Amino acid sequence: MNLDEARDLFSSQWREMSLLDSTSALLGWDEQVMMPSGGSAWRASQNSQLARLSHAILIDPRLGEALMLLGTSPDPILAAHAREGLRRHLRAVKLSPALVTEMAEVCSLAQPEWRKARQESDHSRFAPWLERIIRLKRAEADSVGWTNHPYDALIDEYEPGTTTQSVRTLFEDLAPALSALAARRADEHPLAEPAGNYPVEDQKKFGEMASRAIGFNFESGRLDVSTHPFCSGVAPGDCRLTTRYNSHGFVESFFGVLHETGHGLYEQGLPDSFDGLPLGQAASLGIHESQSRLWENQVGRSRAYWSFWFPIAKAFFPGPLHNVDLDQFLRTLHRAKPGFIRVEADETTYNLHIVLRFGIETALLSGDLTVAQLPIAWNERFECLMGLKVPDDRRGYLQDVHWSGGGLGYFPTYTLGNLYAAQFIAAARRDLPNLDSDLARGDSASLLGWLRSHIHSKGRMLRPEALCIEATGEAPTPHYLLQHLESLIPGNA
Amino acid sequence: MNLDEARDLFSSQWREMSLLDSTSALLGWDEQVMMPSGGSAWRASQNSQLARLSHAILIDPRLGEALMLLGTSPDPILAAHAREGLRRHLRAVKLSPALVTEMAEVCSLAQPEWRKARQESDHSRFAPWLERIIRLKRAEADSVGWTNHPYDALIDEYEPGTTTQSVRTLFEDLAPALSALAARRADEHPLAEPAGNYPVEDQKKFGEMASRAIGFNFESGRLDVSTHPFCSGVAPGDCRLTTRYNSHGFVESFFGVLHETGHGLYEQGLPDSFDGLPLGQAASLGIHESQSRLWENQVGRSRAYWSFWFPIAKAFFPGPLHNVDLDQFLRTLHRAKPGFIRVEADETTYNLHIVLRFGIETALLSGDLTVAQLPIAWNERFECLMGLKVPDDRRGYLQDVHWSGGGLGYFPTYTLGNLYAAQFIAAARRDLPNLDSDLARGDSASLLGWLRSHIHSKGRMLRPEALCIEATGEAPTPHYLLQHLESLIPGNA
To answer: Is A390 on the interface with B (CB under 8 A)?
Structure first.
């Protein structure tokens, strides 16, 4: 195979795989947003067919050979595609078909078991499944290969190049500072969202207006409803967001929209020339999450943002917001109150939930912690971080879906996203001295421009840490996140 | 290959193909109902990938060998699957890849040309494309093989076993009778739907209620909006209907729902044991259309049906329907007034549009008519059938999308559907003497039961004509359709 042949083989085969993967993505979106329940059995077969066809392309030795060759190409873009493509190829070929099949089977059986176990707060029901999953994930890590910690092999799938040690170092700085912040705010009485009726149709209009205003292109995207909000970049030119509505408040749906729009802006900002190629995707899940958290928290909970948008919110919901002023409204957005459930947590305590999970899952994987010891270990560590006694496993380790689906190594990306988001906007603010006055006029074009040129347009050219250094001049640091969380304390803004 | 091996190969490969085809169907539904315009380029590549993968399975010689063998199976169901599977396999292998590719290319280029030509009523723009398409369809017919008329090879794809001669015979009885009926009604002044505001949300609720009432299962289906209403049985357990709304009337959306629900009931009534297998589909397009027309026209325009539903319509739309009585409302549904546009035609004159197209397309295919002669031939024949002079090609032969997409041989299935629908309900009425009083109580369960057992549950076991004979005791005849159309004349009901 010469370089030209390698390039032809690579581009045609990778495109074939990308087409299949985007079809899978559409099926996944449809399943959560549209599909009637009667379609689920057949859909499962469609999903596994597409996964099988895509996997067969990825592990083709001829593709591997082509990628090896192209890694030596003098064209730096092509070489980078090849490097990223080879990374995925090698990971896939290292996993035996038996392991992949067993993992898929165990996870699909474990998920309903987890659901019941959570409902009944029943550790003994889920424990044997989790043990099997940990064993399989350990086998996966050993197959992929690792030097310092087996968790390195897992986190690398979500956050390429990031190690257990680097996350541990960041979290060791972060955790005590977060606990201290939460403790300082323990006596506050947070305001609740004003009671009243918030018509869903108005929430839809308002959310879509806000999404469009920060740059989401509805010619290449949609906004729908699902039980759990998500963003799916189903294909080039087709990015789909969801949120969920309740008529007792608009904050949940609105921040759902802002969060998913942040993901969507990243997807829509990936370079067209990378479409269907290895670099045509986010740098990592953590960087992806940084984009959603940036718009949701850094922009969307700021005084500047709401000085423009709060009057509009009042026009949409004149009843409940009639007697509410901007300061009161911001206080409802800036609470910091420990609670048991991660997905209901505020910005400050949220990251403590992640620190906890990271510590637990690394220990489970290394064998330092057994599944039998898990509930006690979780609850002790939770009390130490949050100052609360976990009443049952339903509100303890059984609350999250991730492990039952084999998603070990995923949790840190949430806090990395928060940390990157704070670091990115601090850098943007240095480059754009008028940013806050722009936001206060409802204008976020300069910020989007900054993200487009420093983050989105890079696709997967750079590893997260390198991208962070190039965009901000610094390696990832908890400094900016802590500074931001500090600013949320009433009176500090 | 022995019988067991043949059965294994057949069932695994046919299932693979069905999974791919149902994924294609979902993509097609999504494209018309959900996809943002930015996704169209990528979607075209997804569609052609899936078509290619599915075609490769269908033409596999090993599959052909297995199907041949299974045709000799002592299991009559398996032998019938094999017969139907072999029919599709043989048709596909007879078409050269070059012809298939050229057809796909020419049609995808011809469609936008047709759209512009229609807009500008410009025969000269579309003529060269239509000439190419006719030439390719003739080549297709010659490849597939035919004895009496090349059109036989095309209609067979939509209406298996039906011949040009059998359609011609039916239409030769039908056409003069329809023209005479239309002429007798020429002096009537049809009532228009009462003017007023019909809120779209209320139309949605009413349409869904009506669809559910005649048996559509929303656990295994949905109802959405698209520019052109359609029904897609995207997968077992997942059948999707669409309609379109305008706030000036509910009749368009409502009959759209009834029509598509008719298709949907057929899809939902196909036997589960045939899922993903050759017999797990409608007997033909004409039989499919009979189900939509039966619910739309035979049931949905009947006095019995509206004696139950009209009070409900009045409750939904009290403003515009306030002073309207049942007789007046039925007169708006029973008009017979020639017009230029097929899709706007009433029940009576609709079939004259089809008679015209059938005559034209058989002549184009045999070479008795050239594309250059087409506009004049169309307009002369139209005037002769309908008594109206066609003012321009936009309202003449350029009005329909079918030919630009290669759909020659499709049109007769619409009138066959009308004819089967009238014949089926006449047979059902003989078997169910209380049918009309049931309908007048809002109960159509007995009719659905009759259709389930005589039509739906057969899947593709029988050819349309055999199915018709088995269900009604007679070969297809225009008698019942004419009887029905006669009954629509005011005073005849």
So the answer is: no
Q: Which of A359, A483, A353, A374 is nearest to A425 (CA)?
A: A483
Residue A241, phi then psi, degrees to nearest 5: -110, 155
Quickly tell me which residue has 């007697």 as its tokens. A323
A37 vs B contacts (CB less than 8 Å): 219-220
| A218 in contact with chain B, both atoms CB, cutoff 8 A | yes
pLDDT tens digits along A396-420: 999 999 999 999 999 999 999 999 9
- Sequence ranges of the domains in chain A: 3-94, 133-493
Which candidate in B260, B267, B296, B465 is catalytic? B260
Q: What is the 3-state secondary structure (H, E, C) of chain A?
A: CCHHHHHHHHHHHHHHHHHHHHHHHHHHHHHHHCCCHHHHHHHHHHHHHHHHHHHHHHCCHHHHHHHHHHCCCCCHHHHHHHHHHHHHHHHHHHCCHHHHHHHHHHHHHHHHHHHHHHHHCCHHHHHHHHHHHHHHHHHHHHHHCCCCCHHHHHHHHHCCCCCHHHHHHHHHHHHHHHHHHHHHCCCCCCCCCCCCCCCHHHHHHHHHHHHHHCCCCHHHEEEEECCCCCEEEEECCEEEEEECCECCECHHHHHHHHHHHHHHHHHHHCCHHHCCCCCCCCCCHHHHHHHHHHHHHHHCCCHHHHHHHHHHHHHHCHHHHCCCCHHHHHHHHCCCCCCCCHHHCCHHHHHHHHHHHHHHHHHHHHCCCCCCCHHHHHHHHHHHHHCCCCCCHHHCHHHCCCHHHCCCCCCHHHHHHHHHHHHHHHHHHHHCCCHHHHHHCCCCHHHHHHHHHHCHHHCCCCCHHHHHHHHHCCCCCCHHHHHHHHHCCCCCC
Catalytic residues of A: 260
Burial environment of residue B85 by CB neighbours within 10 A (0 to 12, 13 to 18, 19 or more): buried
CATH architecture of the domain formed by B149-493: Orthogonal Bundle (1.10)
- Please give the interface size between A and B, counted as residue pairs whose CB atoms are below 8 Å apart: 105
Among the partner residues B15, B27, B42, nearest to A237 by beta-carbon distance: B42
What is the nearest CA distance from B471 to chain A, expressed in angstroms? 29
Contact A49 B220 (CB under 8 A): no
Whether the CB of A222 is below 8 Å from some CB of chain B: the reply is: yes
> Looking at domain A133-493, which of 1.10.1370.30, 3.30.70.240, 3.40.50.360, 1.10.1900.20 is its CATH number?
1.10.1370.30
- CA nearest to A233 within chain B: B39
What is the pLDDT at residue B187?
87
Which pTM was predicted? Answer: 0.94
Interchain contact, A219 vs B34, CB within 8 Å: no
- CATH (residue range B3-148): 1.20.58
Question: Cα dihedral sign for A198, A203, A205, A210?
Answer: positive
pLDDT in single tens digits along all 493 residues of chain B: 999 999 999 999 999 999 999 999 999 999 999 999 999 999 999 999 999 999 999 999 999 999 999 999 999 999 999 999 999 999 999 999 899 889 988 988 899 999 999 999 999 999 999 999 999 999 999 999 999 999 999 999 999 999 999 999 999 999 999 999 999 998 888 889 999 999 999 999 999 999 999 999 999 999 999 999 999 999 999 999 999 999 999 999 999 999 999 999 999 999 999 999 999 999 999 999 999 999 999 999 999 999 999 999 999 999 999 999 999 999 999 999 899 999 999 999 999 999 999 999 999 999 999 999 999 999 999 999 999 999 999 999 999 999 999 999 999 999 999 999 999 999 999 999 999 999 999 999 999 999 999 999 999 999 999 999 999 999 999 999 999 999 998 877 5
